[in-house]
Amino acid sequence: MSQASNMKANFGCFVVIFVCVCYASAEDESVDCTKPPRFIPLHTCCPVPDLSTEELMEQCAEFAKPPPPPPIGRGGPAKFEHSHHHPPHMRGLHPHPCLIECIFNKTEVIGENGEPDVDKFSALLDTTVKDNEEMAAIMEEAFEECTEKASELKAKIAEKISKNPEFAEKMANHRMQAACSPFGAMLMTCVNMETFKNCPASVWNDNTECNTVRDFINECKRV
């Protein structure tokens, strides 16, 4: 089995679980977890740096193209849209999985064994976030935390697959349909979110809308 196939086998079901989000009540009673704030592009609150370079984008050009339009059937355009998977405040944090997988493979952030490499991610930050040491430090810490979360989630999924044949079959079907492993994009989404939550004051857009979104994300713990 190829490395790509192994990664799909290990992480193909992450997308299904990751996007099914519910929220616990907030410790701060001023935050209502049943009412997510109005959507605003999160990069306007905290400009998390893009980790791609011109060279990487050339190497991964086939994945950098805009996604094709949704298929049109007898009933008109498909009702399903990818963005509907994500709560409004989280849209815009989800990178194209095949592009991120390509970038992480080229930079060896994801090693041949399919595991994240913190040192390689740090080296990537040295190239792409070299002008903001504070941001780079926060992103590196976020990557370490997200790597641990991914490892824990992987173990939980493996346990559920071993105990639930129906779930195992669904995940197997999903892996067969996946164009690439979602693991890199899941990891980068987590890094983006953790970086947003701990965004340096020097770049944070300190206004009511941005503060409301961050309060919601910090107080309403995802389950």
UniProtKB/TrEMBL annotation:
Residues 89-215 form the OBP47-like domain. InterPro entries: OBP47-like_dom, Odorant-binding_protein, PBP_GOBP_sf. It is found in: Secreted. Gene3D superfamilies: 1.10.238.270. Residues 67-87 are annotated as: Disordered. GO terms for molecular function: odorant binding. It comes from Zeugodacus tau (Fruit fly). GO terms for cellular component: extracellular region. It comes from the Eukaryota. This is Odorant-binding protein. Keywords: Secreted, Signal. Residues 1-26 form the signal peptide. Belongs to the PBP/GOBP family.
